[in-house]
Design goal:
Layout lengths: L1 H8 L7 H27 L6 H32 L3 H35 L4 H21 L1 H4 L19 H4 L2
Helix pairs in contact: 1-2, 2-3, 3-4, 4-5
Protein name: Post-GPI attachment to proteins factor 2-like
Pfam families: Frag1
Keywords: Membrane, Transmembrane, Transmembrane helix
Length: 174
């Protein structure tokens, strides 16, 4: 949905349209890898199969960070095709801040992991876990910013969508 929405916003007469399309497609495929690896990390515990869990976690981390970067670039290039970067500035600032938080936390995560594994420092694994939680929260927050990308769209989660077509729709839920 995100990719389709932004592809439709691209001004086809702009010289930057190919860059915008490339970044949106790149973000889409990175998101597929991110979700797939996250599912793998979730269902294959480190106690069950540590080597696979570790590799899936690394793939998740890399694809997640690259996905954030690609989304930011894609949205910026779409706005460039319409000479409308001002409209997306707030959302891009939030996304960039969450990417920066994820990058800093990733550096901490790697550092504390190495301290834990190589030096057996006290509390290193606890700090590793803290960084992991910060990354998870930043990742979820980044995905929630999709709300800013669809300012005029509405998401309806409902049972019995036939009510949407009836003139008295607003009265049904009062």
């Amino acid at each position: 949905v995100h990719r389709s929405y932004h592809l439709n916003l691209i001004n086809s007469s702009s010289k930057d349209q190919e860059k915008a399309r490339w970044w949106l497609n790149f973000a889409f495929w990175l998101n597929v890898v991110e979700i797939g690896s996250l599912c793998g990390v979730t269902y294959i515990s480190n106690r069950e199969n540590y080597p696979i869990h570790e590799k899936l976690f690394i793939i998740f981390m890399i694809s997640s960070l690259l996905h954030m970067l690609a989304c930011i670039k894609g949205i910026r290039w779409v706005a460039e095709t319409n000479n409308d970067v001002q409209t997306v500035q707030k959302g891009l600032f939030i996304k960039q801040s969450l990417l920066l938080l994820s990058l800093v936390s990733t550096v901490g995560l790697v550092g504390f992991f190495l301290e834990h594994r190589l030096l057996c420092h006290d509390m290193a694994f606890s700090w590793f876990a803290f960084c992991e939680y910060v990354i998870a929260l930043a990742n979820m927050a980044f995905h929630i910013t999709v709300i800013l990308d669809f300012p005029t769209e509405h998401l309806v989660v409902a049972k019995g969508l036939k009510y949407l077509t009836e003139p008295s729709f607003n009265n049904k839920f009062d």
